[in-house]
Amino acid sequence: MGLAPHAASSSASQHPAAPDVRVRRAMPRDLGTVVKLRLELLREHTEHPIYGRLRADARERAAELFGAQLLSDAEVMFLAESGEEIVGILRCVESIGSPLLEPSRYVYVSSAYVRPAHRRRGVLRALLREADAWGRARGLDEMRLHNVAGSGAAEGAWGALGFDVVEQVRSRRLPGTD
Ligand SMILES: CC(C)(COP(=O)(O)OP(=O)(O)OC[C@H]1O[C@@H](n2cnc3c(N)ncnc32)[C@H](O)[C@@H]1OP(=O)(O)O)[C@@H](O)C(=O)NCCC(=O)NCCS
User: Where are the domains of the chain?
Assistant: First the structure.
């Protein structure tokens, strides 16, 4: 799903973000925290037809995958800190669009997660503000993401932060494979 260019950046900056929250870029030494937060996110969606199908060895796979992502020049993960605790995460990837369409590159946002005790305090808003700055610094002007259908928090947050629904992802099991 995507948004009208500039909508998220203006919406993310007009409202106050959590005042005690600092946002910083995740480093390779943060791998353990990144794995923990991103698995917590997946475990909030155990009933989902895609995200609920977590592999038994997901933790080991996550360490390898996220470790490589932390070293990539094409992406960034932001962490939100409150006191000594890391309370939220957001990942941004510079992604390639269709060669037939503008823009050729855009920011793809994923892995947005705020720990339950810290929600509704502007933590996602603070993370998105850094994501906007990262995208602008790379010369990008559009942000897209997928969100879980039917999640009040996800739909409410992305809508409030300026993201319009422009596409829907559908999934179907092939007949005879249940
Ligand atoms: C979605 C999520 C990341 C939001 O994080 P957050 O830090 O609580 O969001 P913010 O406090 O920055 O909220 C910004 C705005 O979004 C809207 N919003 C946030 N949570 C909402 C909710 N549960 N219901 C309706 N609107 C909501 C509000 O307008 C809010 O501004 P306000 O509090 O001033 O009214 C968090 O609820 C979460 O981690 N949920 C579980 C994982 C998830 O669904 N991730 C998204 C995957 S696509």
Answer: 7-160
CA-115 nearest atom, ligand 1: 39
Residue-by-residue pLDDT tens, the chain, 178 positions: 332 333 334 445 556 677 799 999 999 999 999 999 999 999 999 999 999 999 999 999 999 999 999 999 999 999 999 999 999 999 999 999 999 999 999 999 999 999 999 999 999 999 999 999 999 999 999 999 999 999 999 999 999 999 999 999 999 999 999 7
> What value does the CA radius of gyration of the chain take, rounded to a whole number of Å?
16
Distance 113 CA to ligand 1 centre (A): 9
Q: How far apart are CA 78 and CA 114, in angstroms?
A: 12
Our answer on whether the CB atom of 41 is closer than 6 Å to any ligand 1 atom is: yes
CATH level 2 (architecture), domain 7-160: 3-Layer(aba) Sandwich (3.40)
Surface-to-core class of residue 133, CB atoms within 10 Å of its CB (0-12 exposed, 13-18 middle, 19+ buried) = middle
Q: Which atom of ligand 1 lies at the shortest distance from residue 152's CA?
A: 24
CA 60 to chain centre: 21
